[in-house]
Design a protein that fits this description.
By secondary structure, this protein is of the alpha+beta class. It is about 30% helix and about 20% strand.
Amino acid sequence: MSAYDPQNPFAKILRGEFPCYKIHEDEHTLAFLDIMPRSPGHTLVIPKAAARNILDIDPDDLAHVTRVAQKIAKASMTAFNAQGITVQQFSEAAGGQVVFHLHMHVMPRQMGVALLPPASRKEDGKVLEANAAKLMAALKGN
């Protein structure tokens, strides 16, 4: 396994070098919308700790990410009238990982509606803003 690269896009988001549609932030985690969502409300939850993936993250940091992913999943059910949730985490290239900073995908789902292919289209900023507002309002209600 390669070493953690502090120049990865998510590390740059954490440092404020790249923008994001922030949904939630605390001392251990950041959750933001995927700009190429596979479903409306597709959110990424990342640790603030430098961790390449599940193979090298400290267990306590992973626990924080998992708790926030659950919080986002519950809010997504409300915000997007979802019928289910898909949570995914990929580790290393052979496992499907593309950005090498641990992240969990939280995707609201509707019965019979397939996920879009990964990285298939960039969502319009206005749609992302509206989805972020819905999700943040649902988080306040939970």
